[in-house]
Amino acid sequence: MKSVLLAALTLSSSALAVRPSLDAPGVITHGPRTVREVALTFDADMTPGMEQELRSGRVLTFDNEAVVRVLERAQVPATFFLTGMWSQVYAASAWALAHNPLFEVEDHSYDHPGFSQPCYGLAAIAPTAKGPDILRSQRAIAQATGDTPQYFRFPGGCATAADVQLAQAAHLQVVHWDVIGGDVNQSNPAVIVRQTLGRVQDGSIVVLHVSGGHAPATALALPGIIAGLRREGYRLVTVRELLGNGSASAAGPSAPASVPTQMSKKEAEATALAGPPLGSAWERLTSWARRWSSRP
Fold first, then answer.
1. What percent of the chain has pLDDT over 90?
2. Is the dihedral of CA 145, 146, 152, 154 positive or negative?
3. Contact by Cβ (8 Å): 176, 206
């Protein structure tokens, strides 16, 4: 009887340890409930399997630029949680996001493993590989963008208290969410709009995706989400601003100091050769980033 009870306690504690832990100590899931503000966040997932889908042509892209264009047109600040692998595959897009004054980029692991299991079918990661994964992602994002993230989001929100401590040891604050937009594998934008608006409240952090492919309707849902939030009187902000760590004013975040304000002679010549200006700020930034990264 004693051995059966001991086994039951062991199983119970193990299940508790691997449960997705949005409410674990040290994890932020929302901002102040006293402010009429909401932060829209977008995960840029990339796994080895997703990279193989790209190489095989089964998926055309995991970079949903339409999401960015909607945000730009509506002048909506947003926070993007990038995996390190996504930053490497889409280096120009990562750079453009980091240097767009509306946006900020943060860390979402290197290749999107489930730090605790089970985790929505995500691949497991060895305990000894968890810390190196976080540091590898930080390096990849910094190399692609020139910025060092200060927030970390566990894939699937799956983490133990020990995992949270690993992120904190890397000087990262763990930020998850309190509203799931439900855009993964959802082709009906009305469902995403309804789910988001039905759950949001003061200080909410909404999780959506910018990786396209497996989240095909996010850009189509965004206009309805933005209009609905503004109609309810919510101010849309970045996570840093929501949590009081941003220096942005009421008009929106200011441009990062690292954004070039003047082009060199060589860059100006390259710009002239590139033809007339592109339509959106996103297109201009990604085009400039590609030219900049290919300089001799």
1. 73
2. positive
3. no
Asked if pLDDT for residue 264 goes beyond 70, the answer is no
Q: Which two tokens stand for residue 214?
A: 């497996």
Q: What is the CA radius of gyration of the chain?
A: 20
Query: What amino acid is encoded at 231 in this protein?
Result: R
- What pLDDT was estimated at residue 23? 67
All residues at 6 or more sequence positions from 70 whose CB lies less than 8 Å from its CB, including other chains:
76, 219, 222, 223, 226
Yes or no: say if 151 and 107 are a contact pair by the CB < 8 Å rule: yes
Tally Cβ neighbours within 10 Å of residue 288. 21
Residue-wise pLDDT tens digits, 221-231: 999 999 999 99
- Establish whether the linkage from the previous residue to 118 is cis, with ω within 30° of 0: yes
| Positions of E strands within 126-169 | 151-152
- Give 39's strand partners: 205, 237
Give the whole-angstrom CA distance, residue 263 versus residue 252: 25
* Tokens standing for residue 56: 């095989």
3-state secondary structure of 80: strand
Prediction pTM value:
0.78
Q: Give the N- to C-terminal CA distance of the chain in Å, as an integer.
A: 74
pLDDT per position as a tens digit, 201-247? 999 999 999 988 889 999 999 999 999 999 999 999 999 999 996 43
Residue 129 token pair: 């590989």
Nearest to 281 by CA among 70, 42, 43: 70
